[in-house]
Amino acid sequence: MNNEYIKWKSVRLKDNDLNKELIEMNSKPELIEDAFGRNLTFGTGGLRGILGAGTNRMNIYTVRKATFGLASVLSIGSSVAIAYDSRIKSDLFAKEAATVLANCKMKVYLFDRVSPTPLLSFAVRQLKCDSGIVITASHNPSNYNGYKVYNSKGCQINPETADLILRHINKTDIFYELPGETDFDTCIDKGLITYIEDSLIEDFIDTVCKQAFYDGSKRIKIVYTPLNGSGYECVSGAMAKRGFKNFITVREQMHPDGRFPTCPYPNPEVREALQLGIRDLINSKSDILIATDPDCDRAGLAVRKDNQAVILNGNEVGILLLDYICMMRKKKNIMPKCPVAIKTIVTTELATKIAEHYGVTVIDTLTGFKFIGDQIAILEEKGREDSFIFGFEESCGYLSGTYVRDKDAVNAAVLIADMADYYKDKDISLLDRLEELYKKFGYLISYLGNYEYPGTAGLSKMRSIMENLRKSTLLTKDYLNETDMLHADVLKFDIKDFGTAIVRPSGTEPKIKIYYFAEGCDMIDAKEKMKKLTVLIERMLN
């Protein structure tokens, strides 16, 4: 039997749910192997995994171990801000992390309620913290949770810092406790842990609202859903401050609930998660539906047309926002001297064409908004922070300011509403504007394929697939051969007369992601090429 499992059974765990789970898995060797056969991976995205007992699970002990690792790379007296979303046990994990840091002689600032991830980035910067933690698993199903670490700039940590933390994590026993460790309530009483004041949240909302461009009629009718996550307070507050009175929130999804009872997969990119929002969009005859994921860093958009809902993907929303921001900055004469937009390598090249039209330089980064945040930091070091006008990635992450260094769905929601209101006053829908962009810059469409390989066996399968793809004669570029900032486990296939496919293993989920791009003379032609491209690439996976 697994030695780690035996070790856990010999300890009386503080979380009784874990004790019960250990007993239940006693006669299930496959569950024991999956839960204890390896450790949760800690990388630039921190930890992410299924809730439960085990070294390969999210629980208070894996959270404590990760936090001891973080504390080991910080100096005594360092300050850390901590936020958490609506997920199951997020508040418990946040308090556990805060307690560990306080006992390691760190100053801890903790939000007293569920809070968006971008608000954590804002808090780190405003409070001048040395680091930040947010407890979230983004859009994963309800049985997942996670732990992300931020640097003093409010940006997710880089690979070097993650590796350093991991080395300390690996030296720490899973059940390690400091001698005479003080509990959470005592840390609060002693002022070692301080709750963050509401004024910081108000400052965040004020700052987000300053990203808007248009003070029009506010005739636009908006339906919003936070998908039972952390977005309602900040998004509704920002919309009210901007004067959007025709603003409806999906009742069943308004309040935080980590079970996500109405959408098992709370991803604002997928139609299944938007069903209740679409219902309200149609029934209320509203113009747009905005959805944010549980930690409110990503935003989805649907537009009502002929009593149907048209869902726009992240690339489509991104090029609409990029075009709108560039256009409004030109109109208002507030375009910086050498403007910069930043996107990831798996994001549509239409963005580059649009940016060049407005005289904006585009920087490409690896997948993950932390790399966009890093580029903003580089601009700041060069005294060019004001050059940044927009950053986005195809997975519905957007940012138009430098007040945070991560994607911000509150910012995105305000900008989408602002943009939709502007076009409504001109009797143009967002779909009309999108078609204009396609006509002008090319019918380059995109599709994201997710191929899941769960469990320990799945990881082996993913490695095998990537190895086989590297041997393909169709391979155009292997990013592992890059020596600069684009070095990564990513493969690119440019298929003549079909399109482009970019393949990478997910850093947070047991899946391979394939980003498909096809361009045609019109939308019908582009979709036909997309079908052929996906069939060809999917054959290569088997």
In short:
By secondary structure, the chain is of the alpha/beta class.
SSE blueprint:
Elements lengths: L2 H7 L6 H9 L4 H8 L10 E4 L9 H14 L5 E6 L5 H14 L3 E4 L6 H10 L4 E5 L8 E7 L8 H12 L13 H6 L3 E3 L2 H12 L12 E4 L6 H11 L4 E3 L25 H9 L4 E5 L6 E7 L2 E5 L1 H18 L8 E5 L5 H8 L3 E5 L3 H13 L6 E6 L3 E3 L9 H17 L4 H12 L1 E10 L2 H16 L6 E2 L12 E5 L3 E7 L5 E10 L2 H19 L1
Parallel strand pairs: 2-3, 2-4, 3-6, 7-8, 7-9, 12-13, 12-14
Antiparallel strand pairs: 1-5, 4-5, 9-10, 10-11, 14-15, 16-20, 17-18, 18-19, 19-20
Report what the structure shows:
- The protein has 542 residues and is of the alpha/beta class.
- It has three domains: 3-196, Alpha-D-Glucose-1,6-Bisphosphate, subunit A, domain 3 (Alpha-D-Glucose-1,6-Bisphosphate, Chain A, domain 3); 199-441, Alpha-D-Glucose-1,6-Bisphosphate, subunit A, domain 3 (Alpha-D-Glucose-1,6-Bisphosphate, Chain A, domain 3, 3-Layer(aba) Sandwich), CATH 3.40.120.10; 443-541, Alpha-D-phosphohexomutase, C-terminal domain (TATA-Binding Protein), CATH 3.30.310.50.
- It contains 18 helices and 20 strands.
- The protein has a six-stranded mixed β-sheet with strand order 1-5-4-2-3-6, sandwiched between helices. Strands 8-7-9-10-11 form a five-stranded mixed β-sheet, sandwiched between helices. Strands 16-20-19-18-17 form a five-stranded antiparallel β-sheet.
- α4 crosses α7 (159-170).
Task: Offer a few descriptive terms.
Alpha-D-Glucose-1,6-Bisphosphate, Chain A, domain 3; five-stranded mixed sheet; 40% helix; 3 domains; 542 residues; six-stranded mixed sheet; 18 helices; alpha/beta; 20 strands; TATA-Binding Protein
